[in-house]
């Protein structure tokens, strides 16, 4: 389990770096030059997902559970304090 988690952590680190580089390139390179990269990505991602569906499914489930717990913390700490409903704004004639 330890080696598996370290592999996922390394993969996430690489993907985060790659995503940052891709976003930077997206800002610097015109759209028409990025189309081949997006085309290749759109055709390889489904194949990789099918190959590693179980690992990806478990990983996504763990990410969703973490997101849900962070949202609960934020909801109890901040979002629940925001008043809901209509505000009593007065019209000034």
TrEMBL record:
The keyword Endoplasmic reticulum applies. InterPro entries: Reticulon. The keyword Membrane applies. It is found in: Endoplasmic reticulum membrane. Keywords: Endoplasmic reticulum, Membrane, Transmembrane, Transmembrane helix. It is a multi-pass membrane protein. GO terms for cellular component: endoplasmic reticulum membrane. Residues 39-93 form the Reticulon domain. This is Reticulon domain-containing protein. It comes from Brassica campestris. The lineage of its organism: Eukaryota, Viridiplantae, Streptophyta, Embryophyta, Tracheophyta.
